[in-house]
Design a protein that fits this description.
There is one protein chain. The protein has 1423 residues and is α+β, with helices and mostly antiparallel strands. It has 47 helices and 34 strands. The chain has a ten-stranded mixed sheet with strand order 14-33-32-31-15-27-30-29-28-34, with helices on both faces. Strands 17-16-26-25-24-23-22-21-20 form a nine-stranded antiparallel sheet, sandwiched between helices. The two termini are 64 Å apart.
Length: 1423
């Protein structure tokens, strides 16, 4: 039997050896490294020992050492590099240009030192910040590089302590339990007998579930630790890359035999060794070439939409500056022309010649640029960074974002796009784990076409939810199930689901209250530590009828089912294989009861090979009384006096896997065990005791082995909640996954005893295949069996047809397929996750043929993924359907309210999921993404042409309905009428599957698809791949120019999170990859409501108002200098001291707007949460429209005119000097700007008051001190005692007061009129705060009712730019589909009626209608 497999292995090895020799040719081992240079895609790793030392010296020069440096600077290059990076900003280059320009004597406007102050201030602040950040990274690098690890020394011939930074490629490293892996290593030895090393990858992807890593094939059989001196092989693997999933390569031994390498053999830097005493590996990647370092991209930097708009407005300021400078240059030239004969106004040059007016005007142009440089707000950049940090601080310290259950709060990973949260127009959301809890609860199953609805389990879930709702510490579970518990459909199912009595219920699953008490007492330490191990997931009550059938399974009945073909025998085989598939078709790690994260092992006696099924049955009956005996079982060492065969004949109740014929070519057996009749051997261990077949006929006494053994307290650690739910479901029926090793899986099966399967291959789940398979050798039949589970959308196409199956069973299999499909559709309508379970039995010849291709794929480096995918698809064909499962995933708390609020805020929500259509639609209704009164259009097509016609028809229907509704609303006239008198609202929803997405994403259909989706408030994309998700987000973002937000919790959501304007990751149960790729990370979807509606609104409003204020402040102050030029011959002179001129914007008026940008609050959080419609104010950029910007500049011009000419006319005709004239102007400007800020503030706190008063005091203190000491600081300045004189002059106070009042009066009057006569929604909402709580509640309710009426009266979809051009008039529905008349019938959402009668027969280009008529759209209508 094993000959074909041994032949395949031999042939494969010979083939590889021949190819290896052809590639190497006449090259010796010393030329191995040349292949790396030739291909450029691979790397050769050679140990630095013995005779390979010379080759190692050559190869090692090509690779990095393990020292890392994440710092950007060193002591030597900090200053030049930091300045180089800062001058990448255009604003800094602009001010550097002004500094250099001011050093030119002909155009000098200020003192050279004064001009440098703003630039030096900005550069210094940023340099200090960068230096402190880099120093913290330096300390962390130093700490990591000096960590110690055990490295083999070729000099001392032993492992010695060595710093991480001294580890090199080719070194042997020995690690112990809980040590961090210092570099990327190939695992060559593990102290685990099965060659397993468990690692925790939380440092890379945040996942705390343990990952199994396996010793390279051929090294796992070692009984002692590998000796590095005897290692003479070389490793060829892929070049360093940042992809954490795949690893390609092979180990080539000295005899040219190759062994393939995969990710299971690679230990990644940054992971932690768990549950393994010692491991040894050879370093293949070190330092910055490790996957961990290549994935360390640092913090996220994105440009917000507001920042891009501000850059545009700064360009307008530059144009304004150029215009003012040009005016000054022309004015100066004209002035000189008028006074050309008077030397006082035209000073000659050193050579005695006069400068012509044109040249003097040119020089004055540059002087004016220096003088008016403040118009470009250089301090705005620094202020914006400070304000954003303050906003992020407030978000992170919001107590509402703290999730007590997971002890986590919000993470703001992108620091510069907080304001984008207030402008979101589209949300793209995953379903599983994002909208739902990702707690999979086993609800229903179908086996061999028979449904088992598990009504008692549904009652248990209801009681669990009731008890949790009474528990104050479990508030997160109060939302209950995503769908109400549904009763079975049909007479048969109701008759089958008899209720269990309390005794059997407690016996099978244990009392819930007792379980809770044990959990609270700490008797089950793993219940809270393992993922997917909450009581609601693990505590499953079996179905009565299925349990009765299951209890009748014995080794004899199973043997008959394998040989016979009767209906009863087939059902027995289907049930057995179904639960075996649930138990072993996974990657679940089994842990012991007392050590939750320790691997569970099976006693060596349980590995005895099977001799005969009939003998097993006889031995079960003969030795059933052994349970009461008390003699111990002999050890293997003591049992050396009798042959294995005789021992197995007498004690064949123990099972072990047959050794792999592909490895050794013969079965491996335990040698020479002792006779069973000896006094020492008369007791069977508790966990392996035989099953009494006679007692198994009673339904409620099917199995007792798991109950009486530690197996009942096994801990299962799964990588996904689906796997955990299925394993716990199998365990409820006493099909207990007992242990798992790389080469075997042991299941304690009721009626059959412990079964040990030889695990030949595991084909993991991927998004392309949408399924997972395991290849095992069955211990009963000794045949190769493939168990597969996956999505029904792909599994149904892989089943064998009637022509491929056996003649006797083909009809039965077709009926099973048909009934199972009906059950799957019913499960999907109930909102359950569906999986199909199937199997395939292979002959040894078939397996050997497939194994040959598999080995070639595993040892390939190039195109390895494609080859592995091809081999998996070759195997997963002609399957036999066993059954299906329905698993419930409950909605998270607050999801329906959150989605409803976001929809009212004007945000369109798309749900992108990989689930089938019925499941996605059901969840969409449950979470209120789709409402019962919504009209749902289902787009499903098999060709691009039909898809285009269907979308045209849907668009026509929506537009026709919208036009009718608009006419009705115009007839009603009064918008505020009662809801019952209004025209009925029309909200459209679109449902589209993954196959149709391929068509609509084509360039020719994108525009019409976007036009259709814009008229829909919600879109549900089913069976979508991760790539399609990202393409959809990118399409909406680029084509519609809309602000997008993507939210997800798993690795399959990373691509769309990265593509969106704002990415939000949910730290759920599928690891932290989505969180690590996101801009913001939250714990629950409901937190998105406050993040957008409250903090998004606040951040956007605060930042926009602050930026507008900066433009106003700078333009106002620059205009004061500009107006003065008309009275000084445009000479570039300033009426105030240069120090005060520069420090006015840099110090005196810089802090108040920062506080304003951080703390201003136009509305309270409660009002914003209650009235989500207010979000549209920030969403539509009402606070920062282009008109708002220009009105702000006009107001700045007006205030500057008042601020300049009121003092001018006051002192006109007097003999005051220039600085005495400028001082009241400066002082009045200070008061105007600060009181202007008070007018714009929506909430004035004591902090605002302190800062404004402090700014005024600081200004006066500085000017007084500067006026008293200016002779010492600047001899040329004559600002001496100016402020002191004005402080004693009453006219000074009158001028400041009058100027401030006249300048601010228009703005104040406009704000008053706006608040009384034309209040905005924000002002209306602000008035609610003044009401009493009862009046406020009634006013909010009236507001909501009014908004609901407006929503019903008129739907206002936006139009897609040039979207209508995607379909020409010849292809429009008017000409192609003119014969069809759409009539929208009424049906409930539960019926999910497929109505395609309105579409005519659609012909393709060849005129064939058969293939296109099945592609008609399905319309699900409103209630």
């Amino acid at each position: 039997m094993a000959d074909p497999i041994r032949w395949a292995r031999y042939r494969w090895q010979r083939l590889i050896s021949t190819e290896g020799r052809e590639c190497s040719g006449s090259n010796s081992s010393g030329k191995w490294y040349q292949s790396s240079k030739t291909t450029g895609k691979h790397r050769i790793v050679i140990p630095c020992l013995g005779h390979l030392k010379e080759e190692y010296e050559i190869v090692s020069k090509l690779y990095m050492n393990n020292k890392i440096r994440t710092t950007r600077y060193t002591l030597l290059n900090f200053l030049p590099r930091n300045l180089f990076e800062q001058f990448h900003r255009v604003a800094n280059l602009y001010f550097l240009f002004l500094v250099v320009l001011n050093w030119v004597p002909l155009v000098e406007a200020f003192q050279k030192e004064i001009t440098m102050l703003p630039l030096l201030g900005v550069l210094t602040i940023i340099a200090v910040k960068d230096g402190l950040e880099d120093y913290s990274r330096y300390k962390m690098d130093k700490q990591i590089n000096n960590l110690l690890t055990k490295v083999y020394s070729r000099k001392e011939k032993k492992y010695i302590d060595e710093c991480w930074k001294n580890v090199n490629v080719g070194d042997f490293v020995r690690l112990s339990r809980n040590e961090i892996i210092p570099a990327g290593m190939v695992l060559l030895y593990s102290s685990d007998p099965d060659g397993i090393c468990y690692t925790e990858t939380a440092g890379l992807d945040g996942e705390t579930n343990l990952k199994q890593r396996q010793v390279v094939r051929g090294y796992s059989e070692q009984v002692s630790e590998i000796d590095p001196e005897e290692f003479s092989s070389r490793i060829e693997c892929e070049s360093p890359n940042n992809d954490l999933s795949p690893f390609r390569g092979f180990v080539e031994h000295s005899n040219m035999d190759r062994v393939g390498l995969s990710k299971e053999n690679l230990l990644l830097r940054g992971c932690t060794v768990r549950n393994t005493e010692a491991v040894v590996g050879i370093v293949v990647y070190a330092g910055h070439e490790t996957k961990a370092m290549l994935n360390n991209s640092g913090p996220h930097y994105k440009r917000s939409k507001l920042e891009r708009k501000v850059n545009t407005d700064i360009l307008w300021c530059v144009l304004l500056l150029l215009l003012m400078c040009l005016t000054g240059a022309v004015g100066h030239g004209i002035w000189l022309s008028r006074y050309s004969e008077i030397p006082f106004f035209n000073i000659p040059r050193p050579d005695g010649k006069l400068s012509p007016p044109t040249l003097a005007g040119f020089y004055m142009f540059w002087t004016m640029i220096i003088l008016l440089q403040v118009l470009i707000p250089v301090s705005l950049y620094v202020s914006v960074e400070i304000v954003k940090l303050g906003q992020i601080y407030l978000i992170q310290n919001d107590i509402d974002f703290y999730h007590e259950k997971t002890d986590s709060t919000i993470q703001c990973r992108a620091l510069n796009i907080a304001e984008d949260l207030g402008q979101i127009q589209y949300i793209f959301s995953d379903k599983t784990g994002t909208l739902t809890e990702n707690k999979m609860v086993f609800r229903r199953c179908s086996i061999a076409g028979q449904e088992y609805c598990h009504e008692e389990n549904a009652k248990r879930l209801e009681s669990y939810q009731e008890m949790e709702s009474e528990d104050e510490d479990s508030a997160d579970c109060q939302c209950g199930s995503s769908t109400p518990t549904s009763k079975c459909q049909g007479h048969n199912c109701q008759a089958e689901c008899e209720p269990l009595n309390r005794k059997s219920l407690d016996q099978l699953s244990g009392s819930y209250s007792a379980f809770r008490r044990q959990g609270d007492a700490g008797d089950i330490p793993h219940s809270g530590d393992m993922a997917f191990s909450s009581p609601i997931e693990t505590d499953v009550v079996p179905d009565t009828q299925l349990l009765e059938k299951f209890s009748q399974i014995s080794s004899h009945s199973y043997q008959q089912s394998e040989e016979a073909s009767s209906k009863l025998s087939l059902e027995t085989m289907y049930i057995t294989d179904f639960f075996l598939a649930l138990a072993i078709c996974n990657t679940v790690v089994v842990s012991g009861p007392n050590q939750p994260r320790q691997k569970m092992r099976v006693s060596s006696l349980s590995r005895m090979p099977i001799k005969s099924l009939e003998e097993i049955r006889q031995m079960f009956q003969r030795f059933s009384v052994w349970r009461l005996s008390s003699s111990p079982v002999p050890s293997v060492k003591e049992s050396s006096s009798e042959s294995p065969n005789n021992f197995v004949r007498k004690l064949s109740i123990f099972r072990m896997k047959l050794a792999s014929p592909t490895l050794d070519g013969a079965a491996q057996r335990i040698s020479e065990p002792h006779h069973i009749d000896s006094p020492e051997n008369s007791q069977v261990p508790g966990e392996l005791h035989p099953v009494n077949v006679a007692a198994a006929d009673e339904p409620n006494q099917a199995v007792s082995s798991a109950e009486l053994s530690p197996i009942s307290k096994l801990c299962y650690e799964a990588e996904s909640p689906d796997e955990a739910a299925l394993v716990h479901a199998a365990r409820a029926y006493k099909c207990v996954l007992q242990s798992r090793t790389p080469d075997q899986v042991t299941v304690d099966f009721a009626g059959l005893g412990p079964l040990t399967f030889q695990l030949l291959h595991v084909l993991p789940f991927d998004s392309l295949r949408k399924r997972m398979s395991v290849v095992v050798r069955h211990p009963v039949s000794n045949r190769v069996v493939v168990y597969t589970k996956g999505a029904d959308s792909v599994m149904m196409d892989l089943l064998r047809t009637a022509s491929e199956g056996h003649t006797n069973n083909s009809e039965i299999e077709e009926k099973i397929k048909e009934r199972t499909q009906q059950h799957l559709d019913d499960y999907a309508r109930r909102g359950l996750h569906t999986l199909c379970i199937a199997k395939k039995v292979m002959s040894d010849a078939e397996y050997a043929e497939w194994l040959n291709h598999r080995f070639l794929a595993e040892t390939s480096i190039d195109n390895r993924e494609d080859l592995l995918l091809e081999s998996a698809m070759r195997l997963e064909t002609k399957l036999t359907l066993l059954g299906a499962t329905g698993i419930e995933d409950r909605l998270q708390e607050g999801v329906p309210d959150t989605i409803q609020a976001l929809r009212k805020a004007g945000i369109k929500i798309w749900m992108l999921t990989g689930d089938k259509r019925e499941t996605a639609v059901n969840i969409a209704y449950a979470c209120k993404l789709l409402e019962p009164e919504d009209r749902i259009f289902t787009l499903k097509s098999q060709s691009r042409d039909a898809c285009a016609l269907v979308m045209s028809k849907i668009l026509e229907a929506i537009q026709k309905n919208a036009s009718v509704k608009k006419k009705n609303s115009e007839k009603l006239g009064n918008v505020s009428a009662s809801p019952s008198s209004q025209a009925r609202g029309f909200n459209a929803g679109l449902v589209i599957d993954g196959r149709t997405l391929e068509y609509v994403l084509h360039d020719s259909l994108q525009n019409i698809f976007l036009e259709l989706t814009e008229k829909c408030w919600a879109v549900v994309c089913c069976q979508a791949t991760p790539l399609q998700k990202s393409v959809l987000v990118k399409l909406v973002r680029s084509k519609l120019k809309a602000m997008t937000l993507a939210v997800g919790d798993g690795a399959n959501d990373v691509s769309m999170i990265q593509v969106a304007d704002t990415g939000v990751g949910i730290s759920g149960q599928e690891g932290m990859q989505a969180v690590m790729a996101s801009d913001f990370a939250i714990s629950q979807f409901r937190q998105l409501r406050k993040l957008l509606l409250v903090h998004g609104h606040w951040c956007y409003t605060r930042l926009t108002n602050m930026m507008l204020y900066y433009f106003y402040k700078n333009v106002t102050y620059v205009n004061l200098l500009f107006w003065y030029q008309f009275f000084c011959g445009f000479s570039g002179t300033s009426m105030t001291d240069y120090w005060i001129l520069i420090l006015f914007n840099l110090l005196f008026t810089s802090v108040p707007p920062i506080i304003y940008g951080v703390l201003d609050k136009d509305l309270s959080a409660e009002i914003l949460m209650e009235l989500p419609q207010l979000y549209t104010m920030s969403q539509k950029s009402v606070a920062y429209l282009p008109s708002t910007f220009w009105i702000t500049l006009l107001d700045a011009f007006y205030q500057s005119l008042v601020c300049f000419f009121v003092p001018y006319f006051t002192y006109c005709g007097s003999d005051i000097d220039i600085f005495s004239f400028g001082n009241p102007i400066n002082t009045a400007a200070l008061f105007i700007m600060l009181f202007h800020l008070l007018i714009e503030c929506k909430s004035v706190t004591w902090i605002h008051t302190v800062v404004i008063v402090g700014s005024i005091l600081f200004y006066f203190v500085f000017t007084l001190a500067f006026g008293a000491t200016c002779r010492t600081h600047s001899p040329r300045s004559d600002f001496y005692w100016i402020m002191e004189k004005h402080m004693t002059d009453p006219v000074f106070y009158l001028v400041c007061l009058l100027t401030t009042c006249i300048a601010l009066l228009p703005r104040y009057l406009i704000r008053v009129l706006q608040g009384t006569l034309f209040p905005s929604p924000v002002l209306r909402a602000k008035y609610l705060v003044r009401l009493s709580p009862e009046e406020q509640r009634k006013a909010i309710q009236r507001w909501k009712d009014e908004c609901n009426v407006n929503d019903r009266v008129e739907l206002q979809p936006t139009s897609v730019p040039s979207a209508a051009g995607a379909v020409s008039e010849e292809e429009s529905s008017d000409s192609v589909l003119s014969a069809s008349k759409t009539h929208f019938q009424t049906c409930s959402r539960d019926e999910f009626v497929k109505n395609t009668s309105f579409l005519p027969d659609i012909k393709d280009e060849s005129g064939n209608t058969s293939g296109l008529n099945s592609e008609k759209a399905e319309f699900i209508k409103e209630n």
